[in-house]
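seq as requested:
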Amino acid sequence: MEHVEALSKYVTHFVDQLAYSGVKEVVISPGSRSTPLAMTFAASEDINHWVHLDERSAAFFALGIAKERQEPVALVCTSGTAAANYYPAIVEAYQSRIPLIVLTADRPHELREVGAPQAINQIKMYGDYVLWYQDLALPEVGLSKYVRRQAARAVDEASGKRMGPVHLNIPFREPLIPDFTMDGLWRDGAQPVPRSLKGKWTVDEDTIVSLTEKFKGKERGIIVVGPQMEDELAHAVTTLAHRLGAPVLADPLSKLRTGEHDKRNVIENYDTILKSETIRESLRPDYILRFGAMPVSKAYLKWVRGLDIDHYIVDTENSYREPAGIAANFIWSDAVPFCEECTNRLAQEGKETDWLEHWQQMNQTAKTLMLAEPDHNLNEGHSIVHLADAIPDESVLFVGNSMPIRDVDSFFMSTPKHVDVMANRGANGIDGVISTAIGIASTGKKTTLLLGDVSFFHDLNGLWMAKNKDIPLKIVLINNDGGGIFSYLPQVKHPEHFEELFGTPVGLDFTKALEMYGASHTKVTSWEAYKQALKDVYEESGLSVIEVITNRTDHVDFHRAKWKKVEEAILNGSEV
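struct tokens:
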């Protein structure tokens, strides 16, 4: 009876503290050794629990919830390879700074490394991809305060200045069933650990004054906003840009292309503009001020590598996110107060420069040519254009990696709609894309997923949660039968190996799989059918898939022809 009492108090105080510290959602993967945690989370009145049968999909589902809410989500699994299946999502969460609290149940110490079933070495198994790790003590009487401190710290570590995943490995001895009828459980018998107070921070006033004077004295500044999750930055950074007379190169994941903030300085077509080596060489800024991670655009990366200029990177933590390998000035500060402090020291009327006008003209030229009506064949680029027109206000567009995010970069233009464009760009993987999108949709946000056929195949199991919990999701599936992005790489020049190793045609008809998961499915082969399908799915409830059939061999030529027209028009100074 002493063991059951110790176990029951241990897990109830642990889960209660997570709830008290702000955890509202938990995703549970079924298993035996995790029984104490699973049953306690299910019994909690303060934490909503989800059960997902596939651990890899479960972890990405939790990632999606945490990405949308920007709050820690707990993740529970049994011992053994179940924990290993969480690894891809944990890597993504670490790289993209998404708060997860990973709770892996484990065998007690006497059953480790002795050949016990379903036992692997789980000590620090996620290595450097978690912000904090603890191998907790076995449940004993008198450890309620101890587990509360561990739970409270887990939430603080996951949701601090540098958000990300944390890992608690929790050993349990049998019997594993807690008794919820005992006294001294939950909020009784041990006071909750107070929640930590968090505030905004910025650099000191002298530094702000010095930097503002430097920016103010330059006519050819550039502000870049890469992937980032802060909604308030759009207004703050565009106001700063207007007063500096600086163009803002806005990544599709920057939160700057959508919404009602001032977009007069926003340049969404910079990737297309910078595709031209000649244009890149003609554009030499005095400085670049970047917020967020490195943009998706490879053309931007090439341009930056060739610039010997002052480069400033504002980041919320002491990190070194600069893959271009340049000598950057790192400014560790919250982005919004930094922008506001700089803005307050600049003239209110704003600044117009020839440099800004030149970027605005190039942007309009590129936009006009990129949006020009295509021929009758379906293509990935204009599928984005029509999707942007049809997607509802106040919704999320979740984008798969490889070609979909690059097509969104090229063809998703600025809009007053409040559409939050998201992607898993931490590790840039194709795994778990469906599950992440369903996690976002589970929060109640209207969600559209755009992805390719290889990514779709890779996470088909993720659709189970949408079916099981009746979570509405709209999917635009670009099916070019393979990995289209490799056609842009040097590997394409080796046809004897290309299709098998890189093109990787999936060769599957997804109809039966989608029927199994209860999804409506429309396969389109014309623009009229596609536009009608978009109209129809946004009037439907539940899980809906539009499969757009395109030709991978035409993909490269279509894009390169667009880029060439933009380059020629800009270099010739043509009005389009």
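The chain has three domains: 2-171, 206-347, 374-559.
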